[in-house]
Amino acid sequence: MAEHFRCGYACIIGRPNVGKSTLLNKLIGQKLSITSKKPQTTRWQLLGIKTATNYQIIFIDTPGLQNRRQSSLNRHMQREIVESLTYVNVIMFVVEALVWKQPEEQILEMIGMNKCPVLLLINKIDKLKNKEQLLPFINSISTKYKFQEIIPVSAITGDNIELTEKIIVPLLPHGLAAFPEDQLSDRNERFFAAEFIREKLTRILGAELPYKISVTIEKYTDKSHAIHIIGSIWVESEGQKKIVIGKNGCNLKSIGERSRKDMEQMFGKKVFLETWVKVRKKWTGDLQALRQFGYET
Ligand code: GDP
Ligand code: MG
User: Fold this and answer.
1) What gap in Å lies between CA 47 and CA 9, rounded to an integer?
2) What does the pLDDT read at residue 286?
3) Ligand 1, atom 9: nearest CA belongs to which residue?
4) Same domain flag for 252 and 111
5) What is the pTM of this model?
6) Helices 102-111/72-87 angle, 10° precision
7) N or C terminus of the chain with fewer C-beta within 10 Å?
8) What does the pLDDT read at residue 292?
9) For position 291, what pLDDT does the model report?
10) Domain end among 171, 198, 214
11) Distance CA 48, CA 56 (A)
C-alpha cells in the first residue's frame, strides 16, 4: 500500500500579502486560512490537508515575515517559519508578479541552506495587463536560485493551481497518509471560531484596527441543534475598546453577525455567538499573557 501512496509536507512561504493564504484556500478547496488586504493576517502556522486517492499533501501556511517591529509576536512568527523549513519536503515560495525586492532576497537567504526542492510561484498573474511582461521577470529570477519549477499562478482565478499540485506530488516521499482522509486541517473548531472573529475585526475596522489585538474563545458548547460560543476580543486600552465596539455598538454587532455566518457555514449548524471586548494591558510584550493566548515565546 505505502509504495502506491505519497505523503509529505509543503511549506508556503513569502512576504506578507503575496497571497499565501488565498492560495492555500484554493488548493484545499475550502476557506481555512483567513486573508486580508492588510498584511499580517496569518499569525499562526496552519496546516491545510489535501487528500486524493494516491497522495496526501500537508500544506503549511506560515505567517508573514516582518522585520520592522521586533516584538514578541514577530519573533514567534519567524521561529515558526524557520521551524517549518526543517521538516518539509517541498517549499512553495510565493511572490507577486513583477515584484522582487529586499524581502524576497531575505527569504531566499533563509531557504538557501535547505536541500529540499523549491517551487517559485508567481502569483496574481490575473492582475497583469500584458502577460509578456512575465518573461523577462522569470528570466531574471531564474538566475537567483536553482528553483525546481517557476509557475505563474493566480490564487484568485485558480490559474495553474491544479498544475502546481501535480508538480508537488512526485516530490513527496512514499508513505501512508499522516491524517485521516476527511480531515482538512490540524486546527479545531475553537481555533477557526477565533480566526473568523479576528478576520471580521480586520475587515470592519480597517486602518483603525489596533495592532495588538487578540481573540480567545471562552466557551464552546456543541449541542445537538446548535453551538454556543462566547468569544473575547482583547485590546490594550479603553480607547481601543471604544473603537472596536463602535458607535452604538455598530462595529461589534457586525463583527458578531458576520463571524456567526462564517461559523455556521463551516460547522454546518446554527451558532449562537456572544462577543465581548476586554482590556488587557500591554499584552504583546508580556510573555505570560502571550502564553495565555496560546503563543509560545
Ligand atoms: P498572505 O499575507 O500572503 O497570506 O496574503 P493573502 O492571501 O491574505 O492575500 C492578500 C491580498 O491579495 C488579498 O486581498 C487577496 O485577495 C489578494 N490576492 C491573493 N491572491 C491573489 C491573486 O491571485 N490575484 C489577485 N488579484 N489578488 C490576490
Ligand atoms: Mg496569510
Assistant:
1) 9
2) 58
3) 19
4) no
5) 0.73
6) 50
7) N
8) 56
9) 57
10) 171
11) 10
